[in-house]
Structure formats: C-alpha cells, structure tokens
Amino acid sequence: MYFEVLTNSLLQVNNVTKIAEIAHRYGAISIVDNTFVIPYLQQPLDQGADIVIHSATKYLAGHSEVNAGLVVVKGDELGKRVYFAQNRLGGVLAPNECDSVRRGIQTLALRMDRQQENACAISSYLLLHPLVKSVHYPGLPGHEYEIWALFRKLRMR
Q1: DSSP track, 51-91
Q2: N or C: which end of the chain has fewer CB atoms below 10 A?
Q3: pTM of the predicted model, to two decimals?
C-alpha cells in the first residue's frame, strides 16, 4: 500500500500507524512517501511502515543542485529486495551528489525549524484574515492537529 504522509496540495495528514496496520492485516507492505514531512519531523518506520521514500532533492539536499531520492526499509529481507532492484536498474548517486546531500543534511534542522516557525506565523495570520476562506496547514488546530502534534512529539525524542 503506497501513500503520502502529507498530501499534496491540500496538506491532509494520513495516519501511518493505522494505514500500515491495514496493509499488514491483508498481507501487504506499506510504502510511505515522506517527501514533505521528511525524517527530521517524522520517522514512519517507527510507526509501522515497511518502506519509506524520501526526496533528497527538496529538503534533504536543500540547495537545488541534486536530483535524488532515497529509500529506507525495515528489515533485512526488504533491504535485499530494494538492493537487488537498485543494482539491476543502476539508480545510484555519484560521490559528488552524495556529498551535496550530506552537506544539506547538516543544515536541515535549522532550515526546518525556521520553516515551521514561519509557516505557523503565516497560517495563523491568514486564518484570522477576513478575506481568507480557509487555510490548509496541519499545524493549526483542527481535525488533523492531533496527528501533527504526534509528529512533533516523535521529533522531540
């Protein structure tokens, strides 16, 4: 079962634990696209997901100079299957691009903390603005807020 943690473009939050439980109940694996939430804010493997896909292009590298992604798995068997596919298809970064991603990860915490502060301030302002009908941001109180608060608690561990 393949799903995003945070959907594009309405920013709806999916509950990784519950979706992974449903997948496992029917003998399927759960594959999570964690592009927008990133590992700094949430680690879906800790919530029951089997495979997590991250875009290294957007947030991890952070300097718009690399086109890359990464796959993280739970368990050796899935790791061997992903490695086999990667080895067969040749989707491996050159050392220079790997170093660019490493460099971006060094500033990830600072960039994400500032981004979250700015997003909260802007969405709070827009929520109160008389010309704005609705604001889609999972950090605001609402039906998804409890799950977003869980992300923050997981990150604080």
Answers
A1: EEEEEIIIIIS-SS----EEEEESSHHHHHHHHHHHHHHT-
A2: C
A3: 0.83
Cα separation of 32 and 30, whole Å?
A: 6
Distances (CA, A) of 40 to 32, 88, 114, 131: 15, 30, 13, 34
Q: Which of 69-73, 134-138, 153-157 has the highest mean pLDDT?
A: 69-73
Q: Quick one: pLDDT at residue 65? A: 86
CA 101-2-74 angle, to 5 degrees, is: 60
Which distant-in-sequence residues (6+ apart) come within 8 Å of 28 by Cβ?
Answer: 1
Token pair for 109: 């915490």
Contacts of 12 (CB under 8 A, 6+ apart): 6, 136, 138, 144
Predicted confidence at residue 48, as pLDDT, reads: 96
Residues 54/60, Cβ–Cβ less than 8 Å: yes
Q: What is the pLDDT of residue 13?
A: 82
